[in-house]
Amino acid sequence: MTFTTEQMRFWSPEVRELEPYVPGEQPKIQNLLKLNTNENPYPPSPKVVEAVQAVLANQADALRLYPDPDATALKQAIANQQHVDIAQVFVGNGSDEVLAHIFKAFFIQKQPILYPDITYSFYPVYSQFFGIETKQIPLNDKFEINVADYQQENGGIIITNPNAPTSIALGLAEIEQVLQANPDQVVVIDEAYVDFGAESAVQLVHRYDNLVVCQTTSKSRSLAGLRVGFAIAQPHLIAALEAVKNSFNSYPIDRFAIAAAVASFEDQAYFVQQCQKVIESRELLVNDLTALGFNILPSKANFIFATHPQHDAGQLAQQLREQGIIVRYFNKPRINQFLRITIGTDEQNQRLVETLKTQTL
Amino acid sequence: MTFTTEQMRFWSPEVRELEPYVPGEQPKIQNLLKLNTNENPYPPSPKVVEAVQAVLANQADALRLYPDPDATALKQAIANQQHVDIAQVFVGNGSDEVLAHIFKAFFIQKQPILYPDITYSFYPVYSQFFGIETKQIPLNDKFEINVADYQQENGGIIITNPNAPTSIALGLAEIEQVLQANPDQVVVIDEAYVDFGAESAVQLVHRYDNLVVCQTTSKSRSLAGLRVGFAIAQPHLIAALEAVKNSFNSYPIDRFAIAAAVASFEDQAYFVQQCQKVIESRELLVNDLTALGFNILPSKANFIFATHPQHDAGQLAQQLREQGIIVRYFNKPRINQFLRITIGTDEQNQRLVETLKTQTL
């Protein structure tokens, strides 16, 4: 939709320049195999459903009343599961909202913030939204982050680990190098995919007063439909996030979301088991696609980043779509010969492999 | 909690200055009568519970997948109920988030925005958050908005109608005066309480290209626990809100909230009936409190603003609290002799009246 200059006079001038984030599509097609937005192929813990039913059973008082603005029960459940203090936990409406608050709370500084040239494409959007200058640091030729590149003047650093869409993880020793090289800047480790085989920096929070770790329930806890994300950091950093949140929206997490997410964090056995299933399926899929000639970056995520030396990635994505399989294709420099493929169930992955084998390669 | 200068060096400088909003308290006390946050005393439509149960019945695919980022089903249900086009509807995580996006989308201008000196106390907080200059226009001696005061240079106007905490409503003719006097500025009418007897400006949207109307499901639809607010305006204004929202958080409304709110908007009969009950209870309560000597501003909201010539409002609030009844008291200039009292059920209101009569007056 385009509007006239006259109509646009009502917009705040800076809003006229915004280039919003474009999420992966959510098409409504029968028999679709949706491997494009890194959702979990398995349902959440059965305890989640029970928790929402309990809210409903008591619905009169539950729904007509505001939720706890601090979501204390949820923060406590996260603190218990992550082995941190409740004062080290911040929660928000999905990790996207948590990240937005992080950019406002820490990154409006004189120097530009640093992040990789290939990473979560919401970072430049937040930066523009808050008027934050950025410097994008190129990944090396293997699509890896070179932590030595993050030893330069900056106003803050954000690194996705494992990185997306590359799927490659840094080890904690490398994260510590970044933290130690930047003692006066906040270093954010965005761990949306950490539960599928990478090491979490949460265990470093007590030792680094400049570290913020961000996670989500959308992937490893199968709760993308619920919108709950969180950050772990020392209390002086959490307080900045609370000041921002309470200047924007007092009650971002509704009663269903609080109850459901608490139940998820309390069911550790289910969580560990489901993550393990995805990891095992990933290894099988990597083997099968490698056998078909794909080169696949070493993944610690619930997706893989794959390229085929003889086949154009954009064409492959289009051919798969014609067979009812959607993967994510980014038509951007350096990565326009790659497909980002979410790990499905073994049965779903087999459908992908068979379709590639018989229809496209 | 206070932090050292060294710890505060990590905060964005502007965030160190924020003075966040303080929501009404949500205490956990047995037998508490909570008349402090303008919640509805009645549960939401039974259809709401059925809708959430339907999401649960199909939980595997419902919760592991992201919700529709555009919440199209919800926008359509609102459009139907409000008799507008879906392109005239914006939805957000409570009207607080909708208002935050409104301030960003329209109010970052060269001239200060205008709003009453006594109104929703989140407006100065949003203004500080986005660096917006404000000019507060005093209510008259009867606590009324004088629309002639809004004919001066400005970067936008926001008026709560009925106003809070005063409860007094403007008529549509007065709203139109403001709209006509400010053809180049966005005029926002925040109608959180409109369904309890005031006239909605939604019917003016097709005639004014500078009008944004904001409403919530928290009060009249008994869904404070759910976090769904919305705005109605012409498409060139909705588009600015979408640009802001999609630069901040793609999926602010979860699957339960979408399903539950749709069900609420589809049950018009229940909605009309429950609003009428609150209005009737309000008139009874006004009579009873007037008989006890209170002066009460003329209310079109689900709360009243009451002062007693012989009793200090702060003391009354404290005495009521000791009896397990919480009302809202603002220790602020001009209104520090008033109590803001949410309308409860007739039984709850009677408990308030009896407690005042026997314990405090």
UniProtKB/TrEMBL annotation, chains A, B:
<dbReference type="Pfam" id="PF00155">
    <property type="entry name" value="Aminotran_1_2"/>
</dbReference>
<comment type="similarity">
    <text>Belongs to the class-II pyridoxal-phosphate-dependent aminotransferase family. Histidinol-phosphate aminotransferase subfamily.</text>
</comment>
<dbReference type="GO" id="GO:0004400">
    <property type="term" value="F:histidinol-phosphate transaminase activity"/>
</dbReference>
<dbReference type="InterPro" id="IPR004839">
    <property type="entry name" value="Aminotransferase_I/II_large"/>
</dbReference>
<feature type="domain" description="Aminotransferase class I/classII large">
    <location>
        <begin position="31"/>
        <end position="356"/>
    </location>
</feature>
<comment type="subunit">
    <text>Homodimer.</text>
</comment>
<dbReference type="GO" id="GO:0030170">
    <property type="term" value="F:pyridoxal phosphate binding"/>
</dbReference>
<keyword id="KW-0663">Pyridoxal phosphate</keyword>
<dbReference type="InterPro" id="IPR005861">
    <property type="entry name" value="HisP_aminotrans"/>
</dbReference>
<dbReference type="GO" id="GO:0000105">
    <property type="term" value="P:L-histidine biosynthetic process"/>
</dbReference>
<keyword id="KW-0032">Aminotransferase</keyword>
<dbReference type="InterPro" id="IPR015421">
    <property type="entry name" value="PyrdxlP-dep_Trfase_major"/>
</dbReference>
<protein>
    <recommendedName>
        <fullName>Histidinol-phosphate aminotransferase</fullName>
        <ecNumber>2.6.1.9</ecNumber>
    </recommendedName>
</protein>
<feature type="modified residue" description="N6-(pyridoxal phosphate)lysine">
    <location>
        <position position="219"/>
    </location>
</feature>
<keyword id="KW-0368">Histidine biosynthesis</keyword>
<keyword id="KW-0808">Transferase</keyword>
<comment type="pathway">
    <text>Amino-acid biosynthesis; L-histidine biosynthesis; L-histidine from 5-phospho-alpha-D-ribose 1-diphosphate: step 7/9.</text>
</comment>
<dbReference type="InterPro" id="IPR050106">
    <property type="entry name" value="HistidinolP_aminotransfase"/>
</dbReference>
<dbReference type="InterPro" id="IPR015422">
    <property type="entry name" value="PyrdxlP-dep_Trfase_small"/>
</dbReference>
<keyword id="KW-0028">Amino-acid biosynthesis</keyword>
<dbReference type="InterPro" id="IPR015424">
    <property type="entry name" value="PyrdxlP-dep_Trfase"/>
</dbReference>
